[in-house]
Specification:
The complex is a heterodimer of chains A (258) and B (281). With 258 residues, chain A is mainly α. In chain A, 52% of the residues lie in helices and 12% in strands. Chain A has eleven helices and five strands; from the N terminus they run αααααααββαββαααβ. In chain A, a hairpin with a 2-residue loop joins β3 and β4. Chain B has one domain: Alpha-Beta Barrel (TIM Barrel), CATH 3.20.20.150. Classes of the chains: A mainly alpha (258), B alpha/beta (281).
Chain lengths: 258, 281
């Protein structure tokens, strides 16, 4: 009699590798063992394809059922699940697509969709208050850094994917036409959650660079200097309005003076 | 939000809570006695799902029905998973916490499906020790649910009903009796569904599940994508007469219909439960 762990390993080998030789000897002959294993293979695979469709609805809509199914099956073979929590399944799809050398639009759409997926359930935090903002205004800006909200992702793409992503939303009109070439200034976005709903907002390149520097721990004075160096007319009021409207930051830190 | 006491689940009919119905439920809370959900859907750290569950929990008794613990696996228990489950239990205080009598991982690889155990003394020892480990960690009894299977292990020597009854007796866990699964297995393997039910003591049955199945080739497959079939309603009537009224859930996971369909199914279950009350009086 095989030990329980041997039975489980033989079943796993049959389902994942398609090698049912070991497991069929363990299955009672009342039903075809090969048919049983084939049914499990199908149910397990379909479950993962369904999970990927839910996580990547725009990509699914963009490439269609058949192509998505081929990609998904390849992904499932390459990246087996390692958790009982399926929320984390599919995180490597953009890398997988990149390795397949498919259009970079698909790769970047997948990257944007994974960010949306993560932001949907990212930790809550209280937006910074007006009082706090006013208080920080009187502090030397070279001592001030900002803390970004957990539900914030800054993304930059080699191509402008935001407009394609927008046109393929479930509530977008089916006959919507996306003009090509896409505007090159739309290569950066910030993904946030506003009132519980994931929101993707395009950013001008200088805004993205400022926010990226802040998110990496640069102080406000350094970021202002970067902005002025690149554009003497850079409008900080507008950038702060964007930051506050989208609740991108959850607080400030003030470095001690030495 | 914290709840002083877990709201008990009455011996009435409830429905499975799925995100597909969130809006309908929040806008017009349906007349059902309780709701059940998969805790893994709320393992995220924040966002709308948790806030919605708080609002629903404030109105309905809740049950957690896990799918990812891999109770029968020979891998070590995933304590990260267990910790997330425990913190969700502490936050929402569900009246029941259930898992499947199955396995879904080996060698660190997950299949995220409900795979059958061989019903052997070795499996029974193994699964009982795992149930005890989980119950110790959660500091509460677990319910274990019978699954559908599409194979029979050659070395299974213990009948399914007896296996479940022994697991409940040895660990103090309850049984979540899925009657659709009992029926599907009986048809697929030419068994008498009552053999399973008769082997289970009434006091071990804490909850009942009802659902629909689909036919795939020669198999009936437990898809949770149809209304409850007449044959399963008959089995339910038998079970309620035999075990007495039990909290009963209408499960639906694929091919999601409007909420009213689930509510109607819950009313049908309620009529059978109510009939049993009347007979008892």
């Amino acid at each position: 009699m095989p030990r329980l762990c041997e039975t489980q390993r033989a079943f796993a080998e049959a389902v994942t590798e398609g090698w049912p030789q070991a497991v069929v000897t363990m299955i009672a002959p009342e039903a075809s063992a090969l048919r049983s294993v084939a049914l499990y293979r199908r149910l397990i695979r379909n479950n993962y394809v369904q999970v990927l469709k839910i996580t990547y609805p725009v990509l699914h809509r963009f490439v269609g059922e058949q192509y998505f199914g081929i990609v998904a099956r390849g992904y499932i073979r390459r990246h087996p699940s390692t958790s009982g929590d399926l929320f984390t399944y599919g995180r490597h799809l953009s890398v997988f697509l990149h390795e397949l050398q498919v259009s970079s639009l698909l790769v970047e759409l997948a990257r944007l969709e994974w960010a949306c997926h993560e932001i949907h359930q990212a930790a809550d935090s209280t937006p910074v208050s007006q009082e706090h903002i006013q208080a920080i205004a009187s502090v030397d800006s070279s001592r001030v850094t900002v803390r970004f909200h957990e539900a914030t992702r800054l993304l930059s793409f080699p191509i402008p994917v935001h407009r394609v992503w927008l046109a393929l939303q479930p509530d977008a009109p089916a006959d919507k036409v996306v003009d090509l070439p896409l505007p090159e200034e739309e290569t950066s976005v910030v993904v946030t959650r506003v009132c519980g709903k994931v929101q993707v907002t395009p950013l001008a390149k200088p805004d993205y660079l400022m926010l990226e520097a802040l998110s990496q721990g640069a102080d406000l004075a350094s970021v202002e200097w970067i902005a002025i160096e690149s554009d003497l007319e850079f409008d900080f009021q507008r950038l702060w309005a964007t930051v506050l409207n989208l609740s991108l930051i959850s607080g400030f830190s003030v470095k001690e003076t030495s | 939000m914290s709840f002083q006491f877990p709201a008990p689940i009455p011996a009435q009919a409830g429905i499975g809570l799925r995100s597909h119905h969130f809006r309908e439920i929040l806008e017009a809370p349906p007349p059902v006695a309780w709701m059940e959900t998969h805790p893994e859907n709320y393992f995220g750290e924040g966002g709308a799902p948790l806030r919605i569950l708080e609002r629903i929990r404030a109105r309905y008794p809740l049950s957690f029905h896990g799918v990812g613990l891999s109770l029968g696996s020979t891998d070590p228990v995933d304590h990260a998973h267990l910790d997330k489950l425990k913190s969700l239990i502490d936050r929402f205080e569900p009246a029941f916490v259930s898992e499947h009598l199955s396995w879904c991982s080996v060698g660190g690889r997950f299949f995220n499906d409900l795979l059958p155990l061989p019903y052997t003394p070795e499996s029974l020892d193994h699964v009982c020790s795992r149930i005890e480990e989980v119950q110790d960690a959660l500091k509460r009894p677990l319910l274990i649910e019978n699954i559908t299977r599409y194979l029979t292990w050659r070395d299974s020597t213990v009948p399914e009903g007896e296996f479940m009854a022994k697991a409940a007796q040895r660990t103090g866990c309850g049984i979540l009796l899925d009657l659709n699964n009992v029926y599907v297995n009986a048809v697929n393997f030419h068994l008498d569904p009552l053999d399973v039910l008769r082997a289970i003591p009434a006091q071990a049955v804490w909850e009942i599940h009802l659902a629909g199945f689909d036919r795939v080739g020669r198999w009936l497959v437990d898809t949770h994508g149809q209304v409850v079939y007449p044959e399963v309603w008959s089995l339910y009537q038998w079970a309620i007469d035999h075990f007495g009224p039990r909290p009963t859930l209408i499960e639906w996971d694929t091919n999601m219909p409007p909420l009213v369909v689930l509510v109607d199914q819950a009313k049908q279950a309620g009529a059978i439960l109510g009939g049993c009350h009347a007979a008892a009086l």
